[in-house]
Write a structure and sequence with these properties.
The complex is a heterotrimer. Chain B is built from nine helices and four strands. Chain B is mostly helical. Chain B is globular, with a radius of gyration of 22 Å. Classes of the chains: A alpha+beta, B mainly alpha, C alpha/beta.
Chain lengths: 252, 268, 626
């Protein structure tokens, strides 16, 4: 059953912009991205929106819907009241390009700053043996679809542009955690680098990243806090520090 | 202009476009925490009504009672190393010890989230612009102390043992005979039990027991324990509030009984 | 305004699995590489692949080998595959999977700690390396991170991380440029700004994926517009066997917000059952003779297979995709479908909610969140959705070099030949690894004798004029509505079941739309203007549709992903024929070309009686080509 719904869509670019009201038809079971496409096809032919799979798997259609960072393809129109106006804006932590499209290159820059996985030198392809229980923690983080909603909502950079230099953001904390917990990774000093280079200490664990993650990755509980604890092991715990000097401990 | 109002960002004048009641949660958290802090401060300085001899009830705010002003019944085998007078001021026994449970909660990963949001508004809620000009997180003094959470956790475990002991000795009647159950003994038991849940579900506990390992498969027992603690950890927030309420209520109950306002009812 | 220019050794168009694998190979050989993606880096359609990557590692059943995999692939493709591609693919895919592990991929494990492998339609043994049901994402992410690793290495050596390999995201290529009959580079525009870019590169690898957006119901994202197919055609390359399209048998048909989205074959692999509106488990009626000895003909045996795979035949729900698609189509046409034109697929009766969420997490998650459908409680409504094109650029198997265009390479879905008339599930991920690497190697080899080939100003002006054209027209056609018309034509006339009359009608209609598309006008500016973007995609889709319709009209038989109502049987004479599409600047021409015969050593991997089902007596009596 089709009905008309009210949308407010932010239109503009880096020079100026504002919210524009439109009324558009919505069918049963449709998501916000569907109605945005209808607006595009019928009323605003040059409305810019980034999208791809429309199935919650690629993480392209990230935007803010009624002020909350969300994937437009995963937000059902029916989740709003019949009379409610749905406000759609671009991500507010990144530079605007046009309409609903922002410049997310910050994230790709940060991706390049995290040292890659290092395979044991003496282990030939096909020889690796890993238990399922040892890979599960890292597998959770590899579910990440890089929608960058966590990066967008994180107040460390959302509210403080100047922190972008020194802060990798939740997406890359789970990447670091993934590698630090990878049973075969041989690169040393990931913990130290997490704190000293990637800004782990900037995080005040207010958990918004976890709240917005469409993959329901427990970013804070399973990655950031364990990494903070691992950092404490090597940097802030004199007893463990002493222990590590006396005998080599696993995982340090 | 910084943050969401930076010149490169989409020009939107609202701090947030959220339409839900995002301020309810921080407001509620603030109210409850501030009430607790006020009450706890009052009680810490009150320096009386923390022990009921008849029912063997000691307030968790005052246990272990380490001051030489403590009633011998409230002490741990008369271990009272601290003088009741400091520079001619009467020192409440609570003040000697409260730093530990307080520190445990202050550095707790859950409470950090709740007070950073509700007290410091950093941020007040997700996607709501915070009012601060600069932000450095937990990278420098004093907040870098948060990294000492594990030491407060260890101290917390000691307290849990003592409060468990306090609960056990309350299963006695006025004559000191064992096997009697009063409302007070249940209240202390509940307080100790929720504290154990709170401690065992703690992120530091999860890390210590197995989280720091790289290969679980080489440590099957620790992996099992880690799995259990992980389940508890899902509810850490809940246990944080339960235990706070239970401890506060235990103190209120002991105070009321000790001051004679309430009578501690014995089931048998 | 000065034109933005870049010079590279190798230009890779497309940042899906094949493109990234090619880029890694070329960079590791010391070449400077540019990667072009139409969307953001890491969003390619490869992330949608769920089931796994087929490779005969033999981790779960050690009877598996490349020979068995080769046989399965040829059978699945109804022996129309290019034997050499199928051979290379079967031989090399295990190494390609193990290599991913060296780069940091974390596959699900067996008890011994090896890479776990799962069953899949058409594969004789458990063969698909997987990570839950997000294997494609794992592949993309692993290679994305491998590229970052290469960039970090370059950064340490030169101080500039992007000195050796650079990703150009959100950029569309509109032309492959040639000078003196050889590839010289490519021309395109930034989607963000609309500004034009010239790439000068003597080797170009096309890895643009599929063509699904030519059809109305498809699992493909907006990117699947056949860009690479059309670019290659326009550059003078050929497309082979474009009539073969895989309609995935189980796409969601309802509710509308998830229409076209795939329900992975693993749902059937884990015990999902297909029923019609009478509640009948209809697949037993549709087991073709060639499969009678491999598939159970009764429910009891089919059910037993899930616990004892050695002593029972497989359930018919696991037949190759085209068989399942055809069965569903027949049921729906006979009036036994659901009200939305599909059939029911139910996994909730056999497995508990907990097991479903564990084994099919993203399936559950996706439908629950996208449309409020809970697959642990209710049946899904599924039907055929356009999923994969077997046809594609004609290439030399060993080098992935496009036939007829020196310097042009193609790998992945955009290349043809590997899968014959039908692709087995799980073979696409391994295909793009094997041939992505070979395309990279091919480019390296080619560049040993061919260096930079400068692009002339005339070539640049011609390419630039094409981009400007739609802005200069006033009041012309709207690209959205033309696209919708094209999809209607392909869906109705070139869809899963075809007839000669309908195909001829389609050819006429596509030509008409093509004529009108020359008139497409674009409103608004160049900056991130989707109407403008679609104008170019539309042109590509029209060429693909024309090639598909003409090839389909010519092939008078039914085989794999090509079903003719007027020629329902498979004809062994047609097995010897490839359809070659080429473009003369005006229209697509399709001609027949003989399939290369299989050499003796591969021929002898098969039971002669099996080959008799596919080959003419003359072919079988020869016993291979050498």
């Amino acid at each position: 059953m089709a009905r008309n719904i009210k949308l407010r869509i932010w239109r503009g670019d880096s020079t100026d912009g504002g919210l524009k009201d439109v009324v558009v038809e919505a069918n049963e079971g449709e998501v916000v991205l569907d109605v945005i496409h209808r607006v595009q096809a019928t009323q605003m032919g040059d409305l810019a929106v980034r999208w791809n799979c429309k199935a919650g798997k690629c993480g392209s259609c990230s935007m803010e819907i009624n002020g909350k960072p969300r994937l437009a393809c995963m937000t059902q129109v029916a989740s709003f009241g019949e009379e409610e106006t749905i406000t759609v804006t671009p991500l507010r932590a990144f530079p605007i390009i046009k309409d609903l499209v922002t410049n997310v290159s910050f994230n790709y820059r940060k991706a390049m700053e995290v040292p890659a996985y290092e395979h044991p030198k003496n282990l030939a392809p096909g020889e690796a043996r890993m238990e399922q229980i040892d890979v599960e923690r890292s597998q959770e983080f590899r579910k990440c679809i890089e929608c960058f909603l966590c990066q967008d909502v994180c107040h460390v950079v959302r509210d403080h542009e100047e922190n972008k230099k020194s802060f990798a953001g939740p997406r890359f904390f789970i990447r670091i955690a993934e590698l630090d917990m990878h049973p075969l990774d041989t690169l040393k000093n990931r913990k130290k680098a997490a704190q000293e280079e990637h800004g782990l200490g900037m995080c005040n664990i207010t958990k918004c990243c976890t709240e917005v993650c469409p993959e329901h990755i427990k970013i804070t509980d399973n990655a950031i806090i364990p990494m903070k604890e691992r950092v404490a092991d090597i940097k802030y715990d004199p007893v463990r520090w002493l222990g590590s000097k006396i005998r080599k401990r696993e995982g340090l | 202009m910084s943050g969401v109002f930076s010149p490169t960002r989409a020009k939107i004048k609202e701090r947030t476009l959220r339409t839900d009641k995002w301020w309810v949660e921080p407001l509620l958290t603030f109210s409850v925490l501030i009430s607790f802090v006020i009450y706890a401060t009052f009680r810490a300085f009150e320096n009386k009504y923390y022990f009921d001899k008849e029912s063997h009830l000691i307030s968790p705010f005052y246990s272990p009672c380490l001051s030489d002003s403590c009633d011998p019944g409230a002490t741990l085998a008369n271990f009272t190393p601290v003088s009741s007078q400091v520079f001619n001021f009467a020192l409440s026994p609570a003040l000697i010890i409260l730093i530990f449970p307080l520190g445990f909660r202050m550095t707790c990963y859950y409470y950090r989230k709740s007070y950073y949001r509700s007290f410091w508004m950093s941020p007040p809620a997700c996607a709501v612009a915070e009012p601060h000009k600069t932000y450095t997180g937990e990278t420098r003094f004093p907040l870098i102390i948060q990294n000492a959470h594990r030491y407060f956790f260890y101290a917390g475990l000691v307290f849990n043992v003592i409060l468990t002991y306090d609960a056990i000795i309350s299963y006695r009647n006025a004559a000191g005979e064992w096997g009697h159950v009063s409302v007070g003994s249940l209240v202390l038991t509940l307080s100790a039990a929720t504290l154990w849940l709170y401690s065992m579900s703690c992120h530091t506990c999860r890390h210590t027991i197995g989280g720091r390992l790289k290969n679980f498969s080489k440590h099957p027992v620790r992996y099992k324990l880690w799995s259990w603690v992980s389940v508890l950890n899902h509810s850490h927030q809940r246990y944080a509030w339960f235990s706070l309420a239970a401890v506060a209520f235990a103190d209120i109950y002991v105070r009321q009984v000790s001051s004679g306002a309430w009578t501690n009812f014995y089931f048998f | 305004m000065t034109l933005e220019r870049h010079k590279y050794d190798v230009l890779v168009i497309g940042a899906g699995g094949a493109g990234l694998r090619a880029a890694v190979e070329a960079r590791e050989s010391g070449l400077r590489v540019a990667i072009i993606c139409k969307s953001l880096f890491g969003k390619a359609h490869t992330v949608m692949a769920e089931g796994g990557a087929a490779a005969s590692m033999g981790n779960v059943n050690d009877k598996d080998s490349w020979m068995v995999h080769f046989r399965d692939t040829m059978r699945g493709g109804k022996f129309l595959n290019h034997f050499r591609m199928a051979e290379l693919h079967a031989k090399e895919s295990p190494d390609r999977i193990w290599e991913l592990e060296v780069w940091g991929a974390l596959f699900d494990r067996t008890k011994e700690g090896k890479i776990s492998q799962r069953n899949f339609g058409g594969h004789e043994y458990p063969r698909l390396a997987h990570v839950g049901d997000r294997t494609g994402l794992e592949l993309i992410r692993t290679m994305q991170q491998k590229i970052v690793q290469l960039q970090q290495k370059d950064g340490r050596e030169t101080g500039d991380m992007e000195s050796g390999i650079k990703v150009f995201a959100e950029l569309t290529i509109t032309d492959i440029l040639k000078e003196d009959g050889k590839v010289a580079g490519a021309y395109g525009y930034w989607r963000e700004s609309g500004e034009e870019v010239l790439f000068e590169a003597p080797a170009v690898v096309i890895a643009t994926g599929g063509v699904g957006k030519t059809f109305k119901i498809t699992s493909n994202s907006w990117e699947g517009t056949g860009d690479g197919h059309a670019l290659a055609l326009k550059a003078g390359a050929n497309l082979v066997d474009m009539e073969f399209l895989q309609f995935h048998p189980t796409g969601m048909v309802w509710p509308p917000s998830v229409r076209g989205i795939l329900v992975t074959e693993s749902v059937r692999g884990e015990g999902g059952v297909l029923t019609n509106n009478l509640g009948e488990r209809f697949m037993f009626k549709y087991i073709p003779d060639v499969f009678k000895d491999k598939y159970a003909d009764n429910e009891e045996e089919a059910d037993r297979w899930y616990v004892d795979q050695d002593n029972n035949r497989r359930p018919p729900e696991l037949l190759p995709r085209d068989e399942v698609a055809r069965a569903i189509n027949s049921e729906v046409k006979a009036g036994r479908g659901t009200e939305h034109g599909g059939v029911f697929l139910d996994v909730s009766k056999r497995l508990s909610a907990e097991v479903i969420k564990k084994r099919l997490p993203s399936m559950w998650h996706q439908f629950y969140e996208l449309a409020g459908v809970d697959i642990t409680k209710e049946a899904m409504e599924v039907g055929p959705t356009c999923h994969y094109v077997m046809g594609g650029v004609e290439v030399e198997p060993d080098t992935a070099a496009a036939v007829g265009v020196p310097g042009l390479f193609a790998a992945g879905e955009v290349a043809g030949g590997m899968h014959g008339s039908n692709r087995l599930g799980g073979n696409s991920l391994s295909d793009l690894l094997v041939f992505g690497r070979r395309a990279g190697m091919g480019a390296v080899e080619y560049l040993k004798n061919n260096r930079a080939n400068p692009v002339s100003d005339e070539t640049i002006h011609a390419a630039a004029a094409k981009i400007q054209a739609p802005f200069d027209r006033q009041g012309g056609e709207n690209s959205y509505s033309l696209h919708a018309e094209l999809q209607e034509v392909t869906h109705n006339l070139v869809g899963i079941i075809r007839t000669g009359a309908e195909l001829k009608e389609a050819i006429v209609k596509i030509a008409e739309i093509r004529k009108r598309s020359a008139n497409v006008a674009v409103s608004g500016g160049r900056k991130f203007n989707p109407g403008f973007h679609l104008a170019f995609d539309l042109d590509n889709m029209l060429l693909v549709a024309e090639s598909t319709a003409k090839s389909a009209d010519s092939r008078e038989e039914s085989r794999g992903g090509h079903t003719r109502d007027d020629f329902p049987g498979m004809d062994n004479k047609w097995r010897q024929v490839n359809h070659i599409s080429s473009f003369d600047g005006e229209k697509v021409n399709v001609r027949k070309q003989a399939l290369p015969p299989m050499p003796k050593e591969l021929f002898e991997l098969f039971d002669i009686h099996e080959l008799e089902k596919y080959m003419t007596p003359e072919e079988t009596s020869k016993g291979g080509s050498n």
